[in-house]
Amino acid sequence: MTTDKDDLEPIEPGTAQKLFLDHKATDCTDSTVRNHRYRLNPFVRWCGEEDIDNLNDITGRDLQRYRLWRKDDGDLNKLSLRMQMSTLRVFLKWAGSIEAVPQNLYDKVMVPRVRPEERQRDETLDAEDAQDILDYLSKYEYASREHTAMALLWQTGIRVGSAHSLDLDDVFLDENYVQLIHRPDEGTTLKNGKSGQRPVALTPDVSEVLADYIQAHRKDETDEYGREPLFTTAHGRMHGNTIRRLIYRVTAPCYRGVTCPDCEGDESKCPEAVSPHAIRRGSITHFLTSDVPVDVVSDRMNVSRKVLDAHYDKRSEEVKMEQRRGYLDDI
């Protein structure tokens, strides 16, 4: 069923944005709502500049003009533009449900396609997507190795090599942390060697997932050195590449029954699946967007501030501006 324009209820773009964010706040994290707001702010600003004061009046041609304007105004790469237009599409689909725009208008949002090589260079798992994946795994595959690996990598931002190196003795569930240790003589290393050794805090929820995985789903195996790995297969310590394959599989939208535009429903070949490094980038960006100080994130993730700024911090300049505004408003 489609909505005729005569059936629409007038609403200003800014008012619609606020209602949408209030709607999202009922079942999304604060950081996810913040991300939606940051990505929709330019659209509301553009509507103001174009004297569009009623969302009912937006057309497919307007959406194309906005897409071109946004790319030039924000100096966005293709991946960033894809994320922004995807959020606008979600917003307009919701707007169609409240008679603010025609119900099929969201289909006219042109979301850029991104080649695999472009994604791999700069791909980042968005906080909302990460939460959707974790919600699905928690409901249907609770404490499985897939759920446990995904929860651990997202919440800690550690590298695959660090997850691969963990033993049961490195997991301190009562104190809610894991201890990363460089053991080159026993087949497990950290990227930064001994300087990468550190305790990494866990939330109680992630500790509970780890505890239930260890009790119910971990295979009781040792590796060739007699150590008890956290992640195991029937042959001993799970290989790092196996962890990577798990992550690629569970991050594919089709794995959890979500349709994606460029996929034939095979999660093993899904172009929307992301690598563990994209989870690390996304986790770091999520912490920064949540106003965790840069130095704290740098220490937690074992990455220098220079490298963090250059390769991991994927906040847009507008997000950074809004965060600075939060500190300066009361001065």
Automatic annotation (TrEMBL):
SUPFAM superfamilies to which the protein is assigned, alphabetical: DNA breaking-rejoining enzymes
Entry keyword set: DNA integration, DNA recombination, DNA-binding
Keyword Translocase among UniProt keywords: no
Domain of life: Archaea
Native species: Halorubrum californiense DSM 19288
CDD domains linked to this entry: DNA_BRE_C
PANTHER family reported in the protein's UniProt record: INTEGRASE_RECOMBINASE PROTEIN MJ0367-RELATED, PHAGE INTEGRASE-RELATED
Domain Tyr recombinase positions: 120-325
Gene3D superfamilies registered for this protein in UniProt: 1.10.150.130, Intergrase catalytic core
Single GO molecular function: DNA binding
Pfam family, one: Phage_int_SAM_1
Residue span(s) of domain Core-binding (CB): 11-96
Keyword DNA-binding: yes
Name of this chain's protein: Integrase family protein
